[in-house]
Amino acid sequence: MTTAALLESPWHPLLSQPATEAAIALLGCWLVRRFADGRVIRGRIVETEAYEAGDPACHGYRRQTARNRSMFGPPGQVYVYQIYGRYHCINLATEAADLASAVLIRALEFPDTEAIAGAGPGRLCRFLAIDRQLDGSWLGPTSPLDLEAADYPLGTLIQTTRIGLTRGVDLPWRWYLAESPAVSRRDRRAEAEQMGVSV
Fold it and tell me: Are 93 and 136 in contact (CB under 8 A)?
């Protein structure tokens, strides 16, 4: 995708926000996966995490490398990395080019599919056959990956801390839709505080 086409994308304004804002705006949107054989799978984004420059948990915290280059955008570029030598995670670059800023898609809810299929970044990438080959690709109507707008009310939004980190552990930069069965890990205390219910 050319820079001009990227700037004309309907997703450019949403993803040009700081990651902490884009992570909220992406909830309820649909991540679209197109396959070469014509198949299309859509998953509703129900959980996200934000990573920004200056955040010690951000992959680009120290510097840009060949491995994390896609995280530096421009907004709308796809950043895929591998963890534990077997699982992949998909992120969408945000805010501005040459800035380490991205949103991790942490859970997707797939229609007519068991919730476990999208409950976690590794699971959803396996279900959608997302791996490092898609790193550096772009969201778009002719690309393997795209976004579609949210088409029904989000429900209750929960804000809490991120998962599986050793740095930046206190930053409340994870958001999820409380009513979704596909959320990877619930924070019952945060739900009690933000929904006004007992634990």
Answer: no
Predicted pLDDT of residue 8: 55
The DSSP bridge pattern shows strands 145-148 and 157-160 to be unpaired
Residue 196 belongs to a domain: no
CA 144 from chain center: how many Å? 16
In whole angstroms, give the CA distance from residue 81 to residue 73.
Answer: 15
The list of the chain residues with pLDDT below 70 reads: 1-9, 196-199
For residue 14, the 8-state DSSP code is: H
DSSP of 116-151: GGGBSHHHHHHHTT--GGGTT-BBSTTSSEEEE---
Counting the structural domains of the chain, the total is 1
Q: What is the pLDDT of residue 198?
A: 47
Identify the CATH number of the domain in which residue 56 sits.
3.10.300.10
pLDDT at 6: 53
* CA–CA gap between residue 156 and residue 151 (Å, rounded): 16
Two tokens, residue 127: 């279900």
Whether 48 maps to a domain, the answer reads yes
- Considering only CA atoms, which of 114, 79, 118 is closest in space to residue 99? 79
Asked if residue 195 is part of any domain, the answer here is no
